[in-house]
Design brief:
26% helix; binds guanosine-5'-diphosphate; binds zinc ion; single chain
Length: 290
């Protein structure tokens, strides 16, 4: 008798997938067709021994984050993410092009995006205020925090409740520092997963889902830093700039590229100052990069 039980994929390990079932963790294998299972997936498993099982089915996903892999294919990074926290900082530097890119991905994938300015202890954020205000005017929530000085961390914890979140952002902005501040016993938990599943060590590149002490789940995925425009099309990128959305119908030509096309409502709005010119210019840059 092999009963199907529901579980949550908490980590991808070298030789298996750690699935949390009730209060225990099973090291699971998948059937070949299921090799695209991602951390955050809700799955049905059958138990084959006290601590092992097999994933039989992936339940429908609310969202899926992918990143490019070899042969122009994509690999799933994380499933069922509700919110992406786009982390940035003045050190190394503020990469607004990358921020726009993440926001565009979220806009197209039905994932909420929130901005996190880390390292506010480095008192050089004044020059950024106008740019930051633009994002807030577009409806994006902004957290100003310091992982190092424990500024704004309590508010961030409260915001992470009741959902699955992930941090994205370029290397060096403080994603691991924030993760460590939010999950004080992270190392302990990581070791527990490895121990239970009898894998000496848990590779540092493995994406892992952590339950936060104050509620909510955080997926720590070193690889997510590099998910990029991946498979986004030109119209999707335009849709990804949320202030363009109501204008897209107004362009004279339905296949308008919003570059220097005649009758482009997006360009006209940017030139008239109705939407932020800096964002429009970054859109043009991203188009070139595609
Ligand atoms: P990641 O690559 O995004 O995971 O960034 P890390 O968490 O490894 O942090 C990169 C560097 O920034 C490290 O040297 C951290 O000590 C530093 N750092 C992280 N958070 C803060 C902060 O709030 N303030 C300052 N001044 N430095 C920070
Ligand atoms: Zn247009």
């Amino acid at each position: 008798m092999t009963d199907l039980i529901e579980g949550l994929v908490v980590s991808h390990l070298g030789q298996g997938i750690a699935v949390e079932v009730e209060n225990e963790i099973l090291l699971c294998q998948t059937r070949r067709k299921l090799d695209t299972v991602a951390v955050g997936d809700q799955v049905m498993v059958t138990k084959s021994s006290v601590d092992q099982g097999r994933i039989e089915e992936i339940l429908p996903r609310r969202s899926l984050l992918q990143r490019p892999s070899r042969n122009k294919k994509t690999r799933p990074v994380a499933a069922n993410i509700d919110k992406i926290y786009v982390v940035f900082a003045t050190e190394p530097h503020c990469d607004f092009l990358l921020i726009d890119q993440y926001l565009a991905i979220c806009e197209n994938k039905n994932i909420d995006a929130v901005l996190v300015l880390n390292k506010v202890d480095l008192s050089n954020i004044k020059d950024l205020e106008a740019e930051l205000q633009q994002y807030q005017d577009l409806g994006y929530t902004m957290h100003k925090v310091s992982a190092m000085e424990n500024i704004g961390i309590a508010e961030l914890k409260a915001a992470l409740n009741n959902q699955i979140s992930i941090f994205a952002g370029q290397s060096g902005v403080g994603k691991s520092s924030l993760t460590n501040a939010l999950i004080p016993d992270k190392q302990l938990k990581t070791n527990t997963v490895s121990e239970i599943t009898k894998h000496g060590r848990h590779t540092t590149t493995a994406a892992t889902l952590y339950h936060l002490p104050e509620g909510g789940d955080l997926i720590d995925s070193p690889g997510v830093a590099i998910f990029g425009l991946a498979d986004m099309t030109h119209p999707q990128l335009a849709w990804g700039y949320r202030e363009f959305q109501p204008l897209l119908e107004e362009c004279r030509f339905h296949n308008c590229r919003h570059i220097n096309d005649k009758g482009c409502a997006v360009r006209a709005a940017a030139e008239a100052g109705e939407i932020p010119m800096q964002r429009y210019q970054r859109f043009l840059k991203l188009i070139q990069k595609m």
